[in-house]
Write a structure and sequence with these properties.
By secondary structure, this protein is of the alpha/beta class. The chain has 18 helices and 15 strands. Bound molecules: pyridoxal-5'-phosphate.
Length: 460
């Protein structure tokens, strides 16, 4: 079968195959790769998911985007290896649920995307008999997600740089206790210094032989795996099949997505285009409200600098995936956020509801959700849940309507907030337990490019 091609949202680069888009990350014109055509499922295929395990649904979804690029047996092995953890669906009340995407190795929903992207990269690199070195600067969370996602892959090594003393003990240990193909540097500097060294290494021709890559968060290989859990949750919670003519209740779903760079919600938007009956998206953001304002007024203004809120992974003043959303609604937005062709705003408003939630309300919602519905949420999930509650109120959503709010991190990753609001220390998930007693491996380095370069040359 002929491979599906991917274009750049800046419309100024050649179309490429999935593996090229995956290994390139960003298009040469600085745009984001998108499939030229969105594959679809029939209703029968979507019904068949009720009988399938998570990894089997992942196989069906991802396969559609990789036609002609991988055989079934190999893809099935990769998804089975990537998705070896639970995806709990917890009832709040009526038909309103929380989907917990926090059971992966770093207890963040980013595990879903990073684990699959790592395995796909490894697969294509190995096929070409190449090696890859992933360089990542981190202020804490990204480094541990990438390190854990790529841990144990045979043709890819990972080197993470973190600023000395500026990540939490737990964050550090999530990276430094792994070993194998994961190496870690504690840099005597700030996060920006880590990033500057990484950047300089990328543009240093002496290091070309290392095949450096960044596992960037805008990679299309991270987006496609995020389509899967929308199909999965619907397959588990949809109404049971009725005999023909029996009842007129609609079988559809509302999703609420706590959003920062809009990678998560893009997975949902793609799921809808593939045929999942999504009635509405609730895009819940923190005090960085550039998107709800854009949706309302049609005018887009970045927030610079972004505001610091409790839901820190959503402190984004210009979502890096927004250009993809604009593209799906027929518009064009460049990497700076400038719109050269208006998207269909009316259609966007019909399909998406968006709301900004303040830190104060985020805290109140953590308390309410726990006391009234026995739901333990952390700040990101709380923003999502509050958005859903407001949408249901404003649109008079009935008891029967299926609604699913996404919880994107484990509450135990935010002990200070939970203790302050709920007066107890949440129990650690198994994946984060026992870190204290594990041996750590990392090197210390001065903030000096020539030393960093020597380190790279000596180690790889
Ligand atoms: C990254 C992240 C988000 C935001 O996801 P986007 O895809 O950037 O919108 C939300 N919650 C948590 C815990 C995250 O780590």
């Amino acid at each position: 079968m002929e491979a599906l091609k991917y274009y750049s949202t800046n419309l100024n680069a050649e179309e490429v195959t999935f593996s090229e888009a995956l290994l390139k990350g960003l298009a040469p014109d600085k745009g984001l790769f998108m499939p030229i055509e969105i594959p679809t499922f029939t209703n029968e295929e979507i019904k068949s998911f009720t009988q399938k395990e998570y990894y089997e649904i992942a196989f069906e979804v991802i396969k559609k985007f990789l036609v002609g690029q991988i055989n079934d047996k190999e893809l099935l092995a990769l998804v089975k290896d990537a998705y070896n953890f639970d995806v709990p669906l917890e009832k709040g009340f009526d038909n309103k649920y929380v989907m917990r995407l926090d059971q992966g190795p770093t207890a963040s929903f980013k595990d879903f995307a990073a684990r699959m992207m790592g395995r796909l990269m490894n697969y294509y690199i190995k096929k070409e008999n190449r090696k890859l070195l992933i360089l990542t600067a981190t202020s804490g969370d990204t480094g541990s997600a990438i390190a854990n996602a790529f841990y144990g892959l045979d043709n890819i090594k990972v080197l993470v740089l973190f600023p000395d003393g500026e990540v939490t003990d737990r964050q550090r240990k999530q990276m430094t206790t792994l070993g194998k193909n994961i190496q870690v540097i504690s840099l005597k500097g700030k996060f920006d210094d880590c990033q500057a060294l990484v950047k300089e290494a990328f543009s240093d021709p002496d290091l070309d032989y290392l095949n450096l890559s960044s596992a960037n968060s805008i990679n299309i290989g991270r987006l496609i795996p995020q389509i899967v859990y929308y199909f999965y949750s619907f397959s588990r919670l949809r109404k049971p099949a009725r005999p023909a003519g029996g009842g007129d209740e609609s079988d559809d779903v509302v999703f609420s997505v706590p959003s920062g760079n809009f990678g998560d919600m893009m997975g949902g938007v793609l799921a809808k285009k593939m045929g999942l009956p999504i009635k509405k998206f609730v895009i819940s953001v923190n005090e960085n409200d550039e998107f709800p304002v854009f949706l309302k007024t049609g005018k887009y203004n970045k927030i610079e600098p972004s505001k610091n809120c409790l839901s820190s992974a959503m402190n984004v003043g210009h979502p890096s995936n927004l250009a993809r959303l604009v593209a799906l609604y027929g518009g064009v937005m460049n990497e700076k956020g400038e719109i050269s062709k208006e998207p269909d705003m009316d259609l966007m408003r019909e399909e998406i509801y968006s709301i900004s939630v303040t830190d104060q309300v985020t805290k109140e919602t953590i308390k309410e959700a726990y006391e009234e519905h026995n739901l333990l949420l952390e700040p990101h999930g709380s923003v999502g849940w509050k958005g859903l509650m407001e949408f249901c109120k404003e649109y008079n959503i009935g008891k029967d309507q299926l609604c699913i709010s996404l919880e994107t991190a484990h509450p135990a990753k935010f002990p200070d907030e939970i203790i302050e609001i709920l007066k107890f220390d949440p129990k650690l998930p198994a994946s984060l337990e026992g870190l204290e007693n594990k041996e750590e491996f990392f090197d210390n380095l001065d903030n000096d490019y020539s030393k960093f370069k020597n380190y790279l040359k000596n180690n790889y």
